């Protein structure tokens, strides 16, 4: 389940940006009980009269909520999960807002808290692991006096969540009733026990702010007008193991595994290209951009996905990357804010905190977007018409010390799938889109998808049902039943409306 990261306007018209009020007091005396904000909420949120219970009416998104008042430092926001729906991936997103929800137009709210809302100034949130989001679980999260956010499950030990929230300012809690989480009951808040108020967390991976991680000379780092000098300095220190995936849009062709060329006369075809494997923890990728001779500048879009490109069909990749946002995996896209000149070098790094840092020609890196870092992520690049080609110069290849052995194993296994298409399709660990399946399921990526042996939704059970009236035989009876529970069920292969699902039985 994914989402576009930068949202300046809404489809229905221009909406003024949310205000930040600099003169707010830092604390609220004698606070009223916590409840959900009655007005500012996602379009799919239904709320009871007490304003303590909410549920998502349909879909998997458009369910962002806020508390009715600011949350005090060390005050636990306590939530009980009252309903889940297993046909979605991804779960609850929790965090804080520096923006008073009463000053927000509900129509401005994006579909997703992560990555859309947190890309706006004054919002912080992160995805909770799916394993904690079971019906009946009581989740608590709070802010300490240094701006760190912690959570606990069923009264257990505190777990560090993320940091960077201004503790000296009033902040409202943000809860996104997302994915498999469908209903939440807001319980009475409590103050964190004294023994947890001095909980110490050491940063596993300090945020990189420049290319100095590569021990390059300072004078080379400042050569923003001399990318060739930066290229010469970088080349000996980068690994060439990362390259482009063989699955790419029809408007592109790969000159080499590291160079993607865009055809000039194919504007109505996809120009998407993926990395051959997921990025590793803290890995930095350097990309060189070449423009067409007639172009003065160019623009590049980039993104991240938990979907293995080997499971996509090149012939059905969309021209507009936003068409991928309704897939069940995590998809996030952003645009480089500054125009590119020929030969420019862009550095991308996704930190373990989910922050994506971008550096232009060796300048200081800035956070451009946030992604769900709990699952392996492939990079995506979208070449617009003035860009002739892009080249992966190389990447760093060291793991962050915060990567567990299990996560490293996941990353290694996920990366190998693109080389062996006979392996079964993996489930995303913390998916970020919510449709039960996708029209981009490849007819070539998985042999079982061709023979009809494996359900295209769960990728585990045998296909035993046919969809009426399109006739596709692609799901098991369990997933078919979940499809029919939706308001507007559609075929995962062709998106045709489903009128009925017929169980079939084979004679052999």
TrEMBL record:
Ranges for region Disordered: 421-441
InterPro entries: B30.2/SPRY_sf, Neuralized, NHR_dom, Znf_RING, Znf_RING/FYVE/PHD
Keyword terms of this UniProt record: Metal-binding, Repeat, Zinc, Zinc-finger
GO BP: any one term: negative regulation of Notch signaling pathway
UniProt-listed CDD domains: mRING-HC-C3HC5_NEU1
Keyword Ribosomal protein: no
Domain RING-type: 455-495
Keyword Zinc: yes
Protein name stated in the entry: RING-type domain-containing protein
